[in-house]
Every structure is written in C-alpha cells, then in structure tokens.
Amino acid sequence: MSRRLGISLGVDLVPYKYCPLNCVYCEVQSTTNLVTEREVFFPADEIINELGDFLATSPHLDYITFSGAGEPTLNSSLGEIVHYLKSTYSTYKLALLTNGILFDNPKVRAEALPCDIVLPSLDGATQSVFERINRPRAGLKVQDLIDGLICFRNEYSGKIWLEVFMIAGINDSQTELDAIATAIEGIKPDLVQINSLDRPGAEAWVKPMSLAALKQIKSYLTARVNVPLEIIAKLKYNDGGTHLDEELIHLLHNTLKRRPSTAEDLSAMLDIHINEISKVLRQLHLDKQISVKRETRGVFYSWIH
C-alpha cells in the first residue's frame, strides 16, 4: 500500500542509498553514495525477467512504481525497462518517484515520458534552503532542478504531482514560500502535495510539523498558485491492510520484542525491502506500538507493548 498511489508494485533500480541528494528528512537515513552519474547497476534483462514473472500472474495493481532507497533515474536502463512494461503490460499504469535532479538531462526526461504519473520533489526554491534541506552533491543548483522540471512539463502530457516537504523554521518563511510558489507556477504540476515528517529522518533535529501549520501553508500557497494543493494523508495499515502487511507486522513484533533494531537491520534480517519496512515502522510509531532511540549507528526501534 502506498499513501499516494494505492496498491503499488515498487521497482527499485539502484543499490541502497545511491542518490544525488542527502536529504535531512530521508526515512531510509543518510545517503552513502552521493552521485549524479548514471549506471546500469543491475542487468536490465534481470529486472525485466523478474517483472515478467510477477506480472504474468495478473496481480491487481494501481501502479507499477519506480522508487526505492535511492534515485531511480540514476539507472541508465530506465528507458528500456519503461518501454518493456508499456509494450508488454500496457494495462498497468507506471509511476516515477524522483527528486528531479537529473531532469536537466534531455535523455532522462525522454525516458520518463511514457510514465502515466511522475512525482518529483521540490522542498526549497532558494539555493540556501535547497542546500540545508536536501544537502546536494557539490555543484548542484536548485534553479537547474526547477528549470529541468519546467522543461519536462513542456514535453510531458501525463500527470505531475509535486511534493513539497515542510520543515518548520527552514522552508516555511514568507520569502521561501513565495519562492516555492513562483517555482510551482513555472512547473505547472497537476497537483502539489504538502508533506511533513512522520518517522525519524536522517537528522534528529528534523521534527514533524503540526497539521494546523500545514493547513496555514496550504492556504498561503493556494492564494498564490493556480494549482490544486493537498496535505498528504497518513497511511493506516490496519484499515483494509493486506495479508503481507499483517505478516510483516507480526515479524516486526517478534523481532523487536527480542532486541532493538534499525530499519536497515530489519530489512537484512527479514529479507524485505527497506521501503516496506519503513512504511510499517512509520505506522507502528504513529500508533505508539514502538519506541525510537537515535544512537551512533542509526535509529533503533523497540516494541513497547
């Protein structure tokens, strides 16, 4: 289950934590490989064969989503995999979750064009805030990110849902919100989604923003842009959850009752992708079923019931 995309098959195209950004709020923690160079990473045939095996069973999916614990556009085989899915399994919609950094590259933009929906991020529209929140690889400019998204909008006929992650005291000033509004007007997304922290991020100082504050930001931006805005709702795993969700909660309960673990530890021990682990940990934390303690090696979770 995805908060924004319903039943989503996540396709991770890069190894754990290859990304051009090292965002302070990232729920899969700090970037270990801060890169902008594209690579194959995994043979495209292996990804295509695995997708073919799974999709041959005709699963019910709202989207096949390129996401993961890194930036999917770093995989230079993205276009080949998108083409395979669109030509062989055209009934399925494709979504791309991206930070948009590589959209200044015309080839990357072209590879994303067949996707039904693209969900880029823009957390700050000034260089100082971009550097403070997203901690980009040296030399990256926020204006290049914005210009790349504007170019993509001019070429792309599908839906763009732009996510803006809010951090109190960093990107919620009038000056920064005005800069974000100007960028939104240029990018012309179909929807702007306002988000805030709901699970410990890479840095301890990043805190959740209150719903009241998020509503104020939404109201401020609504008056300045001709684009629909929404606050991203929290996903409730215990409402219509799947069997896999229940099984994963059971596994996490048994593991965390024995010893505190990080999300990375749990992913390795249970052989489950860290994104799935992270989503369920988020909900368990919101439901106060697990406690969180930040230590030198990372964020540790413990079961408290």
Structure in words:
By secondary structure, the chain is an alpha/beta fold. The two termini are 25 Å apart. The protein has helices at 44-55, 78-88, 106-112, 127-134, 142-155, 174-187, 211-222, 243-258, 263-270, 274-286, and strands at 8-12, 18-19, 33-34, 63-67, 94-97, 117-119, 159-165, 191-195, 229-231, 290-295, 298-303. It contains 10 helices and 11 strands. Helix 6 (174-187) links the parallel strand 7 and strand 8 (191-195). The protein has 2 domains: 8-231, Aldolase class I (TIM Barrel, Alpha-Beta Barrel); 243-303, Arc Repressor Mutant, subunit A.
Show the helix and strand layout.
Blueprint lengths: L7 E5 L5 E2 L13 E2 L9 H12 L7 E5 L10 H11 L5 E4 L8 H7 L4 E3 L7 H8 L7 H14 L3 E7 L8 H14 L3 E5 L15 H12 L6 E3 L11 H16 L4 H8 L3 H13 L3 E6 L2 E6 L2
Parallel strand pairs: 1-4, 2-3, 4-5, 5-6, 6-7, 7-8, 8-9
Antiparallel strand pairs: 10-11
Tell me what the CATH architecture of the largest domain is: Alpha-Beta Barrel
Biggest pleated-sheet summary? 7 strands, parallel
Distance between the termini: 25 Å
Q: Tell me, rounded to a whole number, the average pLDDT.
A: 91
Total discrete domains: 2
| Oligomer class | single chain
Helix content: 25-40%
Secondary structure tally: strands: 11
Shape: globular
Secondary structure category: alpha/beta
**CATH third-tier fold name of the largest domain:** TIM Barrel
